[in-house]
Amino acid sequence: MSSFRIAILGAGPIGSTLGSKWTKAGHNVAFGVKDPASERAQRLREESSASVFIGSPAESLAKGDIVLLATPGHTVEELVRTHAQLLDHKLIIDATNQLTKGKTAAEGKWSAQEPLNSLATLQTYAPHAQIYRAFNSYAWEAFADPIYQGIQADLFYCGPEGDTQTIIEQLIGEISLHPVWLGGLDQIEVVDNILRLWATLALFQDKGRNNIAFKVLHR
């Protein structure tokens, strides 16, 4: 397996969970956070391997060829606009959702902008980037433990075919999820609808954030 330099923008549960697994898989991980001196950043330092870098978004992006966007959705446009030059020409994974944090689950209905993804923003400010939509359709608990009664959960994603797709599938596999490609970026709404289905079951029907994931069955 190849080793990569990965910049993770955001140090919340999703970014930190994926970053921890990718570090254990042998990748060089750099977290970019708004305030590297914050309590959350300090806690991440305590929980992370000594090899993990934690600094500003610009410092993180300078250390990564692959970028995971794992910040709250409302912060994405400013973040991408500010660091456009550092993001362009990189492989970017959009794991963000344009949701009001906590409100969707608390009210039992969607509290979201449309679209859920940040594709238009990324294409505007980083037109030469290779963009994928992945890791947005489950809560972080599924990434921490993706095995359900002995069955490996599927992770649905979209983005361009080719060498970068092979990289994405390796990274998904290293989280112990099975990658399922739904097509190019023209299928991004299909990927986003997986989140809508997941939330309907896990949140709106109270089946539990850590209890629901999906599997494609073949015969």
From TrEMBL:
The UniProt entry, under InterPro entries, shows: NAD(P)-bd_dom_sf (IPR036291), P5C_Rdtase_cat_N (IPR028939), STEAP_metalloreductase (IPR051267)
Kindly indicate whether the keyword Oxidoreductase belongs to this entry.
yes
Q: Which UniProt keywords apply?
A: Oxidoreductase
Q: Which domain of life is it from?
A: Bacteria
Span of domain Pyrroline-5-carboxylate reductase catalytic N-terminal: 5-97
One GO MF term attached to the UniProt entry: oxidoreductase activity
Q: What is this protein called?
A: Pyrroline-5-carboxylate reductase catalytic N-terminal domain-containing protein
Organism this protein belongs to:
Reticulibacter mediterranei
Q: Mind giving the lineage of the organism this protein is from? A: Bacteria, Bacillati, Chloroflexota, Ktedonobacteria, Ktedonobacterales
Gene that encodes the chain:
mmyQ
